[in-house]
């Protein structure tokens, strides 16, 4: 089938948005960056400036108290009203489902669109400790239609050696016809107010755009699982001097997995896997510290969204790996209605635990071999689940296997931000030319949905 150039261009635009990318901070020269004062909203917020030299890491403003936070939200334009979205109510969950599926990420001609499921929202928005009032919406006063949404979920972060009580901010979405109404800053202020009333003052959030001021920047990578389908919908082009047959052969995975003892994670494994992940995560400078209840929710609570596996050898779990599914719909295509997309989630391995130095060459080689086999098998699992592409970032120890396993570097760069917290830059697993750095690997251990 011949590839439609316009369709290919549209899908590439979506892929950039899919990785939330519009700018690459590391490629911008200082004159090209917006001056801090140009950020009309962010200059009023407790976030680091681009030129800040951080000596002492910690909160920027630590003098606030919940009793000093207003009890009422900022006023909205007369045609809108605030609401708390009760996602335990099927009708209100449906409102979120419709808003995000129609407006969250979409190319200009509405050819491609994220295909969130209701179960995905239940999984991502209702971790242990979640609060109904942290699901903030804006409705039209007359029709009561949900036209804007933002969420916060509780999270304990470890920033190098310090534990930080925090929230993760996600799913900021404004109806595409209302994006000139300046609702985004007001939504951020409102969710901040509600979180502050619970005596929480820090937040983790991500964006592809460059804001003041990234704590870390990682890059997306894509591993084709079904090259011919990706080509037909415009996900990838045909390189010069290559045939379709050659490309299909290049990305064809083995029929069977190669790791002995690889099996699905079970309830009985949770304590051992929890301890394995805790030890593995200790190597990174930015991580989420889970309770066992949170860990169980993330890895076992949704059988159609998240897929988790362990490797058991001699009655001991040596490795753990997980990924989640977030497809998108292909509109106006006579042959395909959906692309299956898998995202690498949390994993851990004891391959280099005998080495005190994470970057020891011998230990790194052992971990590299273990991860290459493990992630290759995960790609096979994803393919067997009818996923067409597998995404990962340059965070964690991913740079050890991305090139070897034929992950292509994406156009998307994801910036990690800490609200009301000053931190020195954290490695994102990239060299100066933005290629994956297998030697100075990432110190980002948190994976945002």
Automatic annotation (TrEMBL):
This is Glycylpeptide N-tetradecanoyltransferase. Gene3D superfamilies: 3.40.630.30. It comes from the Eukaryota. Pfam families: NMT (PF01233), NMT_C (PF02799). Residues 232-447 form the Glycylpeptide N-tetradecanoyltransferase C-terminal domain. It catalyses: N-terminal glycyl-[protein] + tetradecanoyl-CoA = N-tetradecanoylglycyl-[protein] + CoA + H(+). Keywords: Acyltransferase, Cytoplasm, Transferase. Belongs to the NMT family. Its main location: cytoplasm. InterPro entries: Acyl_CoA_acyltransferase, NMT, NMT_C, NMT_CS, NMT_N. Residues 59-218 form the Glycylpeptide N-tetradecanoyltransferase N-terminal domain. One of its GO terms (cellular component) is cytoplasm. Monomer. One of its GO terms (molecular function) is glycylpeptide N-tetradecanoyltransferase activity. Residues 50-69 are annotated as: Disordered. Its EC number is 2.3.1.97. It is found in: Cytoplasm. Adds a myristoyl group to the N-terminal glycine residue of certain cellular proteins.
């Amino acid at each position: 089938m011949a590839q439609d150039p316009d369709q290919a261009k549209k899908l590439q635009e979506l892929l950039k948005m899919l990785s939330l990318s519009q700018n690459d901070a590391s490629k911008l020269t200082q004159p090209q960056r917006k001056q801090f004062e140009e950020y009309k909203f962010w200059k009023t917020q407790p976030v680091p400036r681009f030129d800040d030299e951080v000596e002492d890491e910690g909160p920027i403003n630590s003098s606030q108290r919940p009793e000093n936070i207003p009890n009422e939200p900022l006023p909205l334009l007369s045609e809108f009203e605030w609401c708390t979205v009760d996602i335990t109510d099927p009708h209100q969950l449906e409102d979120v489902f419709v808003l995000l599926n129609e407006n969250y990420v979409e190319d200009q001609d509405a050819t491609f669109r994220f295909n969130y499921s209701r179960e995905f929202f239940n999984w991502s928005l209702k971790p242990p400790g979640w609060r109904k009032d942290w699901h903030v919406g804006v409705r039209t006063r007359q029709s009561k239609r949900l036209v804007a949404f933002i969420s916060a979920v509780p999270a304990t972060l470890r920033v190098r050696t310090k534990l930080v009580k925090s929230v993760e901010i996600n799913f900021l979405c404004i109806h595409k016809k209302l994006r000139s109404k300046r609702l985004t800053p007001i939504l951020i202020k409102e969710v901040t107010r509600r979180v502050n009333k619970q005596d929480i003052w820090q937040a983790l959030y991500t964006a592809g755009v460059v804001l003041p001021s990234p704590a870390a920047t990682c890059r997306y990578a894509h591993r084709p699982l079904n090259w011919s389908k990706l080509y037909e919908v415009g996900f990838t082009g045909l390189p010069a001097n290559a045939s379709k047959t050659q490309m299909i052969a290049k990305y064809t995975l083995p029929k069977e997995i190669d790791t002995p003892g690889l099996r699905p994670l079970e309830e009985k494994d949770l304590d051992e896997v929890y301890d394995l992940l805790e030890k593995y995560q200790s190597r990174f400078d930015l991580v989420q510290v889970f309770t066992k209840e949170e860990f169980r929710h993330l890895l076992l609570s949704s059988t159609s969204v998240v897929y988790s596996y362990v490797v058991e050898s001699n009655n001991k779990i040596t490795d753990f790996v997980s990924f989640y599914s977030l497809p998108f719909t292909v509109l106006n295509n006579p042959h395909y209605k959906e692309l299956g997309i898998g995202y690498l989630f949390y994993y851990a391995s004891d391959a280099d635990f005998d080495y005190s130095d994470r970057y020891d060459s011998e230990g790194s080689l052992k971990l590299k071999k273990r991860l290459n086999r493990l992630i290759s098998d995960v790609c096979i699992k994803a393919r067997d689940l009818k996923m067409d592409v597998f995404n990962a970032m340059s965070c964690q120890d991913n740079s050890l296997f991305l090139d070897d396993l034929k992950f292509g570097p994406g156009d998307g760069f994801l910036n990690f931000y800490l609200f009301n917290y000053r931190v020195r830059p954290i490695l994102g697993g990239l060299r100066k030319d933005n290629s994956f750095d297998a030697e100075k690997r990432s110190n980002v251990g948190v994976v945002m949905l």
